[in-house]
Design a protein that fits this description.
The protein is of the alpha+beta class. The chain has 8 helices and 17 strands. It has an 8-stranded antiparallel beta sheet with strand order 1-2-6-7-10-13-14-15. It has a 3-stranded antiparallel beta sheet with strand order 3-5-4, with helices on one face. A hairpin with a 2-residue loop joins strand 11 and strand 12. Helix 1 runs antiparallel to helix 6 and helix 6 runs antiparallel to helix 7. It catalyses: L-threonyl-[protein] + FAD = FMN-L-threonyl-[protein] + AMP + H(+). Pfam families: ApbE. Its EC number is 2.7.1.180. It is an enzyme of class 2 (transferase).
Length: 316
C-alpha cells in the first residue's frame, strides 16, 4: 500500500503527515494549505489575524468572524466556564504578561498580575449567534486559543482526508496526534505512539499507546518554562491566581476520539493532585488519561490498562 509522508515546521512546532492513498501527495499539499490558513487566521502571534481583530476591538465593538472560528470560540467559552478546572480561553492577558516560551519571559509584578486577573473572566466573551460576532466586553481582554486550536486543526484535516477516501493516516501537530484507521505496517494493526517521559531528555519514551482512529494529546510542565532565582515557572497558568498552576502532575496525556477534546482535557485535567485529575476525568464520557507525577509514577483512568511498556484500552 503506497504511503506519502512529509514533515515541516508551522505554528512553532514540527508537523508530520502520513497518508495512505493513491493521490496522497496532492492530499498532503491540500492539508498543508488548510493548516496554513488556520494558522494565519486563528493566531494571536500575527497582529492582522482574524482572532486579533476580535482582541483589538475589546471594549469597543463586536467583530463578525467566519463560522469556523465562531464555533471554536463558542466551544472554548463553554468549557472555560467550568470553574472546576484551569482551562480558560480568556487567559490571554496573563499569557502576554508572562511571555513564557519567548526570549523575554519574565515574572510579572503582583500589581500587574492583579490588574490582569480582572480581564480573564470568560463570561465577558459575548457571542451573537445570528451575526456570528464576538465581543470582549472589557478593554484589555484577549482570547488565546493556544490550548485548543491545534486539536481543532487536526480534526478538520482528518475530516478532509477521510472525505477524500483516506482510510489510513497519521497527523501530528507537535504533542498532538490524530490517527485515521490503523497503521498497515504494524503487526498489532495500530499506530503505536509514544508518551514522552516529562522527567527525562527529549526522545525518552515512557510508554507507548496503540491508537486506531483515535487522538492522543499531551501537555506537560516540561514543555515551556523558564527559571529565575532557582524557581521554575511553567506555561500552564491559573486564572484564579495569575501564577503557574500548582500541581503534582508533570504531564497529562488524553486519549479521545476528537483531538479538540484531547486539547481541552489535557489542560482541564491539570488539577493539584493526580488522584483529583483521575477522579475528574473518569466521569467524562469518551475521555481517557495517562498522568505522570513529578516523582515519575504513572496513573491511568479506568478505561486503560498499564502494561509497563504499553498502555492499552481495557478492552484492547
Amino acid at each position: 500500500m503506497t504511503n506519502y509522508r512529509t514533515s515541516f515546521q508551522m505554528m512553532g512546532t514540527i508537523i508530520e503527515l502520513v497518508v495512505y492513498h493513491p493521490n496522497g501527495e496532492q492530499l498532503i499539499r491540500q492539508a498543508y494549505q488548510q493548516l496554513q490558513n488556520y494558522a494565519q487566521r486563528f493566531t494571536v502571534n500575527q497582529p492582522n489575524s482574524e482572532l486579533m481583530a476580535v482582541n483589538h476591538n475589546a471594549g469597543i465593538a463586536p467583530v463578525t468572524v467566519e463560522d469556523d472560528l465562531f464555533q471554536l470560540i463558542k466551544l472554548a467559552k463553554a468549557r472555560s466556564q467550568d470553574l472546576n478546572n484551569p482551562f480558560n480561553i480568556a487567559i490571554g492577558p496573563l499569557v502576554k504578561a508572562w511571555r513564557i516560551g519567548f526570549n523575554d519571559a519574565k515574572v510579572p509584578s503582583q500589581n500587574e498580575i492583579k490588574a490582569k486577573l480582572g480581564l480573564v473572566d470568560p463570561t465577558n466573551i459575548l457571542l451573537d449567534e445570528a451575526n456570528k460576532s464576538v465581543y470582549l466586553s472589557q478593554v484589555g481582554m484577549e482570547i488565546d486559543l493556544g490550548a485548543i486550536a491545534k486539536g481543532y486543526f487536526a480534526d478538520q484535516v482528518k475530516r478532509t482526508l477521510v472525505d477524500a477516501g483516506v482510510e489510513h493516516g497519521f497527523i501530528s501537530l507537535g504533542g498532538n496526534v490524530l490517527t485515521i484507521g490503523y497503521s498497515p505496517k504494524n503487526s498489532n494493526h495500530a499506530w503505536n505512539v509514544g508518551i514522552q517521559n516529562p522527567l527525562a531528555a527529549r526522545g525518552d519514551v515512557l510508554r507507548a499507546v496503540p491508537l486506531k482512529g483515535m487522538s492522543m494529546v499531551t501537555s506537560g510542565i516540561n514543555e515551556r518554562y523558564f527559571d529565575v532565582d532557582g524557581q521554575r515557572y511553567h506555561h500552564l497558568l491559573d486564572a484564579r491566581t495569575g501564577m503557574p498552576i500548582t500541581t503534582e502532575i508533570a504531564s497529562l496525556t488524553i486519549i479521545s476520539e476528537q483531538s479538540v477534546d484531547g486539547e481541552i482535557w489535557s489542560t482541564a485535567g491539570f488539577l493539584p493532585s493526580v488522584a483529583e485529575a483521575m477522579d475528574y476525568i473518569n466521569v467524562q464520557a469518551g475521555i481517557e488519561a495517562v498522568a505522570v507525577s513529578k516523582e515519575g509514577e504513572v496513573s491511568v483512568t479506568n478505561g486503560l490498562v498499564d502494561q509497563g511498556g504499553m498502555i492499552v484500552p481495557a478492552e484492547f
